[in-house]
Amino acid sequence: MSDFNIKNFLEAKVLQYNRPAFITHDPICIPHLFTQKQNIEIMGFFASILAWGQRKTIINKCNELIDRMNGDPYHFIRNHQDEDLKNLLGFKHRTFNDTDLLYFISFFRYHYHRFDSLEDAFLMGQEGIQTISVEKALNEFKNYFFSLPDYPLRTRKHVSSPLQKSTCKRLNMFLRWMVRKDEHGVDFGIWDRILPSQLIAPCDVHVERVARKFRLITLEKVNWKTAIELTENLRLLDPKDPVKYDFALFGLGVEREM
Question: Do you know which Pfam families this protein is assigned to (predicted)?
């Protein structure tokens, strides 16, 4: 199959999956419950970090988390008293537990007292908008996220970075949600200092399997270099918005069309 045919096929699949019906059964439905920017950011972040396992379970756990924060995560984070944190005790999803959750809340409180948007947390050490490196952004984000003196060592495993050679699937997915802009209403496009062209493709098992069939991935090991290879090949198809093809690759994989 030529590159031209791959492009046409994937463009058609982007149109098929990049539509509001996609939202209902995907973790992105969680931030779509909100209109306030900070709540979209906070619950988008939680939904992406908790995104492993069955999608239905992920969505249920995120809804539980919203309930524990009284339906308004941003207000809870900014204004909670120590007594209110008891609401969070006992929360668990896979290996993410209430110890991790309490630190996440602590970080968000620290950050949102300094900045208006979570986007700033991904711009540490960056200079001009045209030269932003998502690889550097993710590495610096992890350093910043764990810059509070009381972070639990066990919590570090829940925030990946390229330095660990991780694909950083969850964080790249979160960045896609926040940065990509189009008229279809799935991704939010509420950040404007990181460009869609700078994003790195989220690479999970579904995406990897389909991408290999199209030889968009040739590296044997799945790590950060794999995510870079996939993104560079997608940029050949659309330099300005390569990560839109995540809809096609993920959709083909999860629906088992291939």
Answer: DUF2400
Short-list 179, 150, 245, 160, CA closest to 207: 245
Cα–Cα distance measured from residue 136 to residue 123, given in angstroms and rounded to the nearest whole number: 9
Picking from 113, 108, 106, the residue whose alpha carbon sits closest to that of residue 150 is: 106
The C-alpha atoms of residue 48 and residue 35 are separated, in whole angstroms, by: 18
Asked if residues 45 and 65 have their Cβ atoms less than 8 Å apart, the reply is no
What integer is the mean pLDDT of 235-244?
Answer: 97
pLDDT tens, residue by residue, 29-39: 999 999 999 99
Degrees to nearest 5, angle at CA 227 with 104 and 148: 20
Q: What is the pTM of this model?
A: 0.95
**Mean pLDDT (whole number) for 109-133:** 91
- Diameter of the chain by CA atoms? 61
- The answer to whether the beta carbons of residues 38 and 178 sit under 8 Å apart is no
CB 152 within 8 A of CB 184: no
Q: Alpha helix (H) ranges present in the chain?
A: 3-17, 20-23, 37-49, 55-68, 73-79, 98-112, 134-145, 169-179, 205-213, 224-237, 245-254
